[in-house]
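User: Fold this, then the next.

Assistant: Folding the first:
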Amino acid sequence: MSLGDLHEVLPDDEIAALLDAAAKPAQRCIRLRPDRIGIEPLPMAVEAVPWFPRGRLLVDSSLRPSQSLQFAAADYYIQDAGSLLALALLDVQPHEAICDLCASPGGKASGIVESLGEHGFLLANEVIASRASILRYALSRTGSPRYAVAQQEPEVLADRFSGLFDAVLVDAPCSGQTMVGRGKRDSNAFDTKQIEHSAKRQQRILLEAVKLLKPGGRLVYSTCTFSVEENEDQIRFLHQHFPDSWEPIQSSQLAKWASPIEEGCYRLWPHRDATSGAFAAGVVLKKELDATHDISNFRMPLRLNRNDIPHQRKSSVVKPEVDLSNLGQLSNLQIKNSSKGFLSALVADGPAEILQRLFEQERIVLATERQNILKPEYVLAMLDSGWFQPTDAIDISEKLAIQFMLGHALPVDSFAESRAFQTNMGKICPLNQAWKIITWHNKPLGWAKYAGNRFNNHLPKHAILPIPPIE
């Protein structure tokens, strides 16, 4: 195990305490959704996260915050307290266009969308296709459509969107030393070769990330590791590679956690801060970077996948337009019917230069139609009322809501004593209307489809939760 450069940022007499704390699970944490704060009490006792106003640490970390209907209804997101450091430093402003370059599983990306306000936009990028579905699920839970999801190598994305973003977040792949205590990494995370490999990859990603920024834009770099080589040294690399182009972000709110060796860098430690640990650094691009600067030696190997290139070939079969009029009314969205049988959307007031560069598959898919059968997507059910007014929404009891979140169908007879069949317009829902949004405390949980004596459950696999049933 290599501890080498830790002595630069931590007193020698704390190293043993760090290693002991890093080997243990950290205190559980949630991030509150801003429009749901204070609506009803949380299902567990919590205390504030000092570096992020909407963060809450669980007093009893033996509890599982995912086993709650409030989590199912997206009142909060489960997120390590350390990862909130990067969100605090990013300090999202309501009007901004932001790129999250390494976005899955979506904790930071969904936190950004929650903070965008009425006019912002996020491009969330995830190279690994298998991780994109969990990213889209996390973003769906925000209730906002102010995002798109790309799946491209950083250099491809940087070429498409050069100079268009107010801020870029690089939550870089790293050796993952802070994840050892969570059982997601083994002690090889401290191996010198692993650290060196990660550091070189991080440099390549950073050199592409800076191309995405507008002059005056912010770059926030974060990792879940302790190594100086993967943290402060990466910011020094930027300063050396682009002399006089950057100034550090000095956050008075985060001054307590400032790195002792590099301005604009901040650290959390397991033995000090009730978290697994984290690093975040912020710099502001003072002037446009020299476009002729040669970064070819740092280029990442280009691994194009089918999502890297827009599909130019058109289907010979013309499919009918997907019609959502029976499901509800959309507002303030750019709607597009695909020749492949799906309906996608983007916010109407998003940044035009970014929106016009998006590929069809990067938009938000609201519904699909196959063999004349319409299937609304989970994201459509979860949209806030300012974006989608559903025709039919059934508000169900706690017991039924738990059954629904377990993935079960709901018998029609079970609604006999509920205040069901009310639309949000106050009208009586026809019992045999095909698609209905299931809600709990008037907050959406997902879609169900009428099938005679039951409503079939159409939750995506990511949304199914092991909530203990009520006896």
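Now the next one, as you asked:
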Amino acid sequence: MEPIVAAVADGYRSVHDQMRNEIRGLGTEELNWTPAPETNSIATLVVHTVGSEGEIWRTVRGVPSDRDRPSEFRTRIASADDLLPLLDAADALLDELAPAVTAADLATVRPRPPREPQTGLTWLVTNYGHAREHLAHLQLTKQLYANHASRSAGAVSS
């Protein structure tokens, strides 16, 4: 496997593991709560992140993607058990596609409308950054929910 591909794939696996750790034990309300209008829930952040990265790995390999991006932002789930298999599937996709990525794939300019075409390496690196950003969004949303819940509990007990 190309060394840069192995490093990026390991980075994605780390993001997946951190997401698993963040969502384990969270309830329906926590996973679906949004801190403000036009923000995303923890569930949406997980679904969107794995959808985006799957599309990127397929794009880099020149494999068709059937991603439905708009549906990622309509996510509502019942429990963390609904999200964990998505992270497992994302790891499985890494196991399948990362070893097949060649130096030519990294150098080939690939389209991904509506964005400007980029090299495979650019797609992988920028999307890995995207995944890390959404991990941070997830962590912040979790903190904001905890603050919201403690304030709500304080208001109820007063």
